[in-house]
Every structure is written in C-alpha cells, then in structure tokens.
Design a protein that fits this description.
Elements: H1 6-23, E1 28-33, E2 38-43, H2 50-65, H3 69-74, E3 99-104, E4 107-115, H4 119-131
Antiparallel strand pairs: 1-2, 1-4, 3-4
Length: 133
C-alpha cells in the first residue's frame, strides 16, 4: 500500500525534529497525504507561530506540484517559467525552501513541509525527515 499512514507521518516528524534539535532551531513540521490533506503537524517548543501555516502550505505545495518548494522557488523568480505561481491557489503556494514531495515506489504519496528557520535550515530538516521513510 502506497498511502501515507499516521505512523509514517510520525516517523517523518520524529526524524525532522531530531535534525532540528541537532541544529538548534525549533521548527514547525507538517505532513500531508496524496490529496494534500494534513495528516499531522508538530510545532516544536519555541517555534514561530507564524510558521505553522507556512509549514502546512509548504507540504501542500510540494504535493500539489510534485516538486520541492526550493526548486519551485528557483523557477518562480521574475523571467522564469513559474513567475507569479505564488499568487495562485488563493495564495496557498509557498515558494520558500523546506517543502519536499514524499514518494513511494516512484509515486508521490504526500508532502513534508518545514518552517521556522532560514531556507537552508528548513531544507536540511525536511531532507532528514524524508530520508527516514
């Protein structure tokens, strides 16, 4: 079965939390399913409340477009092919690093979104989460 379960989400979040602790940056970590629906979210102690929505939107964006938000950001700058995409979907599209599609057997089955630090910090925490699955 390819669908993400709550246990899968917990595994992703635990690995991401561990990496966030290692780098000393509290994070918001969100996991969505193949339909972009939230499975689980954690706001680590001290993580910005403003990043709750951003982490969820990063997870959704990674799944909605099956691309990391870091790569989408690079392609959405002025003159690039996806310029203006962040205004679509009622502004839900996030073009900051930290959102990664989750794949199983070559199929995208969800997304992981991390927010609370710099783009580089968000990305490394997200990568650690996805690597755990």
């Amino acid at each position: 079965m390819n669908a993400l379960t709550l246990n899968d989400a917990r595994t992703l979040i635990a690995a991401a939390e561990k990496r966030a602790q290692e780098i000393g940056q509290p994070m918001n970590i969100a996991v969505v399913d193949a339909g972009g629906n939230l499975i689980a979210h954690v706001r680590m102690d001290g993580a910005w409340i403003g990043s709750v929505d951003i982490s969820i939107s990063k997870a959704w964006t990674a799944r909605a477009f099956d691309i990391s938000t870091r790569d989408l950001a690079e392609n959405s700058q002025p003159g690039q092919q996806f310029f203006g995409i962040s205004a679509s979907n009622a502004g839900k599209v996030m073009i900051f690093a930290g959102g990664i599609p989750i794949t199983r057997d070559g199929t995208v089955v969800g997304g992981l979104g991390v927010s609370g630090g710099s783009g580089e910090q968000d990305q490394t925490v997200a990568e650690a989460g996805v690597a755990a699955l």
